[in-house]
Amino acid sequence: MSGLKLRSLLPEDLDRVAEIESRIAGHPRMGFLEKRFAVAASTPDGFVTCAAVDGGKLAGYGFARLQEGEFGIRGVVAVLDVIGVDPDAQGKGIGKAVIAEMERQMKKRNIGTLRTQIEWGNHGMIRFFSSAGFLLAPCQIIERDTSPLPEEVAEVKTVKMDAKGQVHSSAGGNDYDMLARDRVMVRSLKKEDLAAVVRIDGKLTGLDRSAYYAAKFREMLIESGIRVSLVAGDDGIVKGSSWRGSISANSAKSRKRR
User: Fold this and answer.
1) Which residues are 62's β-sheet partners?
2) Alpha carbons 53 and 178: distance in angstroms, whole number
3) CA Rg value for the chain
4) What's the pLDDT tens digit per position in 86-95?
5) How far apart are CA 150 and CA 233, in angstroms?
6) Helix and strand tally (H, E) in the chain?
7) 232-258 pLDDT, tens per residue?
8) SS3 240
9) What are the pLDDT digits (tens) for 122-136?
10) Which of 5, 9, 10, 87 has the maximum number of C-beta atoms within 10 A of its C-beta?
11) Does the pLDDT at position 10 exceed 90?
12) 3-state helix, strand, coil in the chain (%, to 5)
């Protein structure tokens, strides 16, 4: 495209990106974008970004996080989680130019896959990614509706023990239905849990994925405003963990760099 300049996103691009996001989605997503820009500035090696400037004004942008080891997948992949083009500048090939520039940066880092996720009913974005060379990824997104709980969960003020000294407390009042929370301590993930999680993962996979988990902890505890990451343990020792899934493994679209 004649006159189009491509460069990496800069901190001063935040307001303009939020303005375009507002025009596209109806809201600026300022909180999300602020965290993305901040972490990209602090750890530039973990991201690939692109700003498309047309006529001296930012008209398009892309933001991809580099991830390695998600769900045991080997190698580094770039996960595109932000891309947008000013509605007044759409139809000029700016979106494809942004992806091409990001792939150029990926090639310099020897990264061969660009991956993203899209709603199946968003036909416009599906057409765009298809025309840009993306294909269905060999991954399956699964979900579970957690709204209809089988019972109302309520903390109990008193507990009873059976003859073996075991605690029983169910929300329904049946002292013989032991709940999982009576046997295993479950709490929110903390930064101090990193070593324990790395230790457990090493036993399961035989790999040292310290760098991967350090990045995941930073994403979950600092970058995200959602706190659903948990650890389970016994006698103060962490024995299991679970957290919000990311799009790097649950991706619906994938493009191999040619």
Assistant:
1) 50, 83
2) 61
3) 23
4) 999 999 999 9
5) 24
6) 7, 12
7) 766 566 666 665 543 322 233 445 544
8) strand
9) 999 999 999 999 999
10) 9
11) yes
12) 35, 25, 40
